Structure formats: structure tokens, C-alpha cells
UniProtKB/TrEMBL annotation:
<dbReference type="Pfam" id="PF12937">
    <property type="entry name" value="F-box-like"/>
</dbReference>
<dbReference type="InterPro" id="IPR032675">
    <property type="entry name" value="LRR_dom_sf"/>
</dbReference>
<dbReference type="InterPro" id="IPR036047">
    <property type="entry name" value="F-box-like_dom_sf"/>
</dbReference>
<dbReference type="GO" id="GO:0031146">
    <property type="term" value="P:SCF-dependent proteasomal ubiquitin-dependent protein catabolic process"/>
</dbReference>
<dbReference type="InterPro" id="IPR001810">
    <property type="entry name" value="F-box_dom"/>
</dbReference>
<dbReference type="InterPro" id="IPR006553">
    <property type="entry name" value="Leu-rich_rpt_Cys-con_subtyp"/>
</dbReference>
<feature type="domain" description="F-box">
    <location>
        <begin position="1"/>
        <end position="49"/>
    </location>
</feature>
<dbReference type="GO" id="GO:0019005">
    <property type="term" value="C:SCF ubiquitin ligase complex"/>
</dbReference>
<protein>
    <submittedName>
        <fullName>DgyrCDS6723</fullName>
    </submittedName>
</protein>
<keyword id="KW-0833">Ubl conjugation pathway</keyword>
Length: 527
């Protein structure tokens, strides 16, 4: 019998006993193995390298991320010619990296946002497509860009701006997107650039402390626009002046208090993703024309009502991702009628909707068969209705924190594809946790903060090879002697933990008091 004839669930259980190195190595055996092992490793395409894990010898080219400042860079030199992406996420000695960079023949992605670099080696960059430069880098960005003839996406801090950077952005034929970080209004030359000099870009993102939203008014090809800034209080009625409405597909306004003329969005008929949080206004006016909308994130939007949801179910049947958390002017019937009209729904966030109970999700398993992420934090208890949630076959992400469910409910559910579950401040006990984990062969993250679990449960969890993130903060039933035992357990090098242990400082795969709070719009990618 061929091993590939085994069910995916059995194969994944087998793969869970492999260490991290062998999981990466075996990804390249075949497409099926790559898919299953990617689920165990994180699915982001980046190989995390530290002093205890070697890069597997493979023929494929790959992305590597360095999270350990103590790594011996010389050990990586034999693999440099296979690297296509490099992310520096630690305070590593820059000079030790220069020789490694010189040996990378076709570098396509370079991320230096967390790296301090005073100089940049003289290396060919004609294959480079993505470049992220942080504020700690002090080399001349203009000289680097002059070699990057194929660059498509650039992120840089305003301190790197000079005339050569300006000329590159204005005249580059390959550049498609730019993210300007920490922009201030006093930098008039830079503001003039992104008001008048980026008419050829498809992606534009600005962030900083501004009092006005500066926009590429004459850009006719822009597809993605992001504006963020804590001090931004301008009036987006100015958007009436630009011509980009016909092509814009992605709009994110992370600016609390920003004044918006909602009539503007009626012109953006091609919009597929809309992210606006902590705002108010007559959103209903805009939604009626957004018939192609696939992702809507309007968390903490104070004016969402029953009429808003009625417009969604009538005009936005293509919605696959919806976040209406923090909404208090809707009821169970409104949400129930909405999910019945959204057969493509994959992500639903209803956190802190205090007017709702689990009754709003009756029959959700019938009408939303593709639902993969569900967040119900602080919804009112109604276990009978939650039985329909337990019937969702494709669920991967579940957040029921602060929902006071009985432990018997946890023991009666089975989510085979579950990768992330948040159970903080619930009544779950050891038996409920063990049942969930043993029946979820892909589990990567568990939040058990302030629950009643004991040391026996913790001892079991650290043996689960697929587990990467564990939060046991404020679990008073776990004795100190058990925590000390866990600190010395070598299996923790495959685990992100909030356990206060000195080992977290030595091993990059452990983050001290680090929680994985994934933004709504990054859980799944819209295509």
C-alpha cells in the first residue's frame, strides 16, 4: 500500500511526529505532502532559521527568516544560492550578513524593517521585487534603488527620502506599490511626491501623524489605497477630486475620527475590500452600489443597524469576509437572515455584539458551508444554538472567549480542521481541552488564559507537535513546580508560549508573553 493512499488526517498525525527540520525537508516530496506539512508549519512560506535548526538541502528556492541574533551566518553560506527571500527580524550583526548577501544570486524579497544597517553591500539587485526598509537603516536608499530595476513594492521611512529616491519612484517602470511610513506634514517635498508623482502606482499606503489626507488625485490606475495615522482629522470629501474611483478595489481607512463623505463610495463600483473601523456615518448610502464587495470590515461602526444588514443581504451576495464586531443596534434575527443570504461566507466576526446571542447562528452550518473563521467573543450563552456551530465542517479559527459555556459542551464538539481556538475566561477544564486537541490534528494556537486547566493538561499540550502558540496566563491551577518542569522541556523549541521562561530569550520560536492577535483582514487573503 502506498503511503499516499492513507487519508489526510492519518498522514498529518504521522507528520506531527517529525521535527521542524524534517517537516521542511519533506514538503518537497510531492504536492500532497507540501499541503499537509504547510498546515503544520504555518503556511506563510518562510522558513524560520535559528541556531538549533539547519536549512534542509533541497533543490527548490525558498524564503528564510532570521529570528536569532546568535546564529552562525557561515552555516547558511552553502544555501545562499537557493534563497529568494530574506527577512531579518532580530538585532543581528549587519557586517556578518554582508558576505551572505553577496552569495545570494537572485534575491527577490528583502525585509530589513527590524534590522540596524549602516551600509549596503555592492550586490546585484536586478531580481529584487519587494523591499522593506525600517527606520534603523541608515544607508543611502537611493543608491540601492538605482540597482533594483525590477522592484514592484517598496516600504520606507521618511528619513530615507532624498532626491534620488524621489526620482526612482516617479520614473520607475516596474514599481507598482509604495508604503510611506511615519510621514509628517512638514516634509513638503515628500508630500508633493505622493500627491503628484505616483500616478503610475497600483498600491498606495501612507501612515503617520497628519492632519490631512494627502491623496494621489490624478492616479487613474490605483487599485489599493490605505490611509492611517493617529492624528489624521482631515475631510475625505477631497476624494471627489481624484479620478481613481473607477479602478479602486481595496480601501482601508484606519483613522478614527476621519470625516468621510459617504457619497464618494457610490463611485467606487469596482471595490472588493473595504476596511473602516471606529467611525460613524451613513454607511447605508454606499453599500447599495458595492455589489462586487467580497470583504467588509466595519468593526465598532456606531451606525450599523438592521437596515444596513438588509442592504448587505440584498446587494452584497458575494461577501466572503464580514466583520461587524462592536455593533449594538442589531438583533439575532437580523444576523440570522443575513447569513442565509451569504453562501460564500468564509469569515464572520461578531465580537462584543452585546445585543446578540448564539441564536443568531441557527442553521449556519446549512447556509454557510464554507465558513472557516468564526469569532464570537463575549456573545451571550445559548448552548442549544451553538450546536449548529459545532456542525461546521471546515472551521479553522474559533474564538469563543468569555463565553461561559459548560465543560460538557466542549467535550461534545469535534473540529478536525481547527488550527486556532481562543478559550480565555471560559469554563473549560482539562477534559474539554484534551478532547478538542486530540480531535484537531492541525491545531497551532490555543488561548487558555484565565481558565481552570491544571498542570496535567499543560504537560500534555507541550507534547503536541503541531502546537505553536499557547497562552496560559492567569491559570491559577497550574503549580509553579509544573512551570519549572516545562521550562526545561526541550520540546518547547517548537512552541510559542506566554509562559514566563528564560528559554524564550534564547530560542526564537518562543516569544515571551507574545500573543498571536491576527488582524481580521489577514486571516484569509481575498483573490
Amino acid at each position: 500500500m502506498n503511503i499516499n493512499d492513507l487519508p489526510n488526517e492519518i498522514l498529518s498525525i504521522i507528520f506531527s511526529y517529525l521535527n521542524v527540520k524534517n517537516r521542511y525537508y519533506n514538503r518537497f516530496v510531492c504536492k500532497k505532502w507540501n499541503t499537509l506539512l504547510a498546515a503544520l508549519l504555518g503556511d506563510d512560506g518562510w522558513i524560520i532559521i535559528h541556531k538549533d535548526i539547519n536549512v534542509p538541502k533541497v533543490s527548490n528556492r525558498y524564503n528564510i527568516a532570521l529570528y536569532d541574533a546568535d546564529i552562525n551566518i557561515n552555516q547558511l553560506l552553502p544555501y545562499a544560492n537557493r534563497v529568494k527571500g530574506l527577512k531579518i527580524a532580530c538585532a543581528i550583526n549587519w557586517e556578518s550578513l554582508v558576505n551572505f548577501l553577496k552569495n545570494i544570486k537572485e534575491l527577490e524579497h528583502l525585509d530589513l524593517t527590524s534590522c540596524s544597517a549602516s551600509s549596503f553591500p555592492n550586490i546585484p539587485l536586478h531580481h529584487l521585487k519587494i523591499l522593506h526598509i525600517g527606520s534603523l537603516c541608515s544607508f543611502d536608499l537611493g543608491k540601492v534603488l538605482s540597482k533594483a530595476s525590477s522592484l514592484k513594492h517598496l516600504t520606507f521611512h521618511q528619513s530615507h527620502y532624498n532626491s534620488s529616491v524621489d526620482n526612482f519612484i516617479r520614473n520607475s517602470k516596474s514599481l507598482e506599490g509604495v508604503h510611506f511610513e511615519r510621514i509628517v506634514e512638514e516634509n513638503r517635498d515628500l508630500i508633493n511626491l505622493f500627491e503628484n508623482g505616483i500616478n503610475h502606482l497600483k498600491v498606495f499606503k501612507q501612515s503617520g501623524t497628519l492632519t490631512n489626507a494627502f491623496l494621489p488625485y490624478s492616479n487613474e490606475v490605483l487599485e489599493k489605497l490605505t490611509i492611517s495615522g493617529t492624528g489624521l482629522t482631515g475631510d475625505l470629501s477631497l476624494m471627489l477630486l481624484f479620478k481613481l474611483a473607477s479602478q479602486l478595489k481595496f480601501l482601508k481607512l484606519a483613522t478614527p475620527g476621519l470625516r468621510i463623505d459617504w457619497n464618494i463610495l457610490k463611485k467606487v463600483t469596482q471595490l472588493k475590500e473595504l476596511h473602516i473601523s471606529n467611525n460613524s456615518g451613513e454607511l447605508d448610502k454606499s453599500l447599495s452600489s458595492l455589489t462586487l464587495l467580497k470583504c467588509l470590515d466595519v468593526a465598532s461602526f456606531s451606525t450599523i443597524t438592521s437596515s444596513t444588514l438588509k442592504i448587505l443581504r440584498t446587494n452584497c451576495s458575494l461577501l466572503s469576509h464580514l466583520n461587524i464586531s462592536g455593533t449594538s443596534n442589531i438583533n439575532n434575527e437580523d444576523v440570522n437572515e443575513l447569513v442565509k443570504c451569504l453562501p460564500k461566507l468564509e469569515t464572520l466576526f461578531l465580537d462584543h455584539c452585546f445585543s446578540l446571542t448564539f441564536q443568531c447562528l441557527i442553521d449556519v452550518h446549512i447556509f454557510c458551508r464554507n465558513l472557516r473563521a468564526l469569532s464570537l467573543q463575549k456573545l451571550k450563552k445559548d448552548e442549544t444554538a451553538l450546536e449548529d456551530v459545532a456542525k461546521l465542517k471546515k472551521l479553522e479559527y474559533l474564538n469563543i472567549a468569555f463565553c461561559k459555556l459548560s465543560n460538557s459542551w466542549f467535550q461534545s464538539t469535534c473540529y478536525k480542521l481547527l488550527t486556532v481556538i481562543k478559550l480565555s475566561h471560559t469554563n473549560i477544564t482539562d477534559e474539554g481541552v484534551l478532547h478538542l486537541v486530540k480531535n484537531s490534528y492541525r491545531i497551532r494556537e490555543i488561548n487558555l488564559m484565565a481558565t481552570e486547566i491544571t498542570g496535567d493538561c499543560l504537560r500534555y499540550l507541550i507534547t503536541v507537535h503541531s502546537l505553536r502558540v499557547l497562552d496560559i496566563t492567569s491559570c491559577e491551577n497550574i503549580l509553579e513546580e509544573v512551570l519549572n518542569e516545562v521550562k526545561d522541556n526541550n520540546r518547547l523549541n517548537h512552541l510559542f508560549s506566554s509562559i514566563p521562561t528564560p528559554m524564550a530569550l534564547d530560542c526564537p520560536c518562543i516569544a515571551l508573553h507574545q500573543k498571536s492577535n491576527v488582524p481580521f483582514h489577514k486571516i484569509f487573503t481575498i483573490t
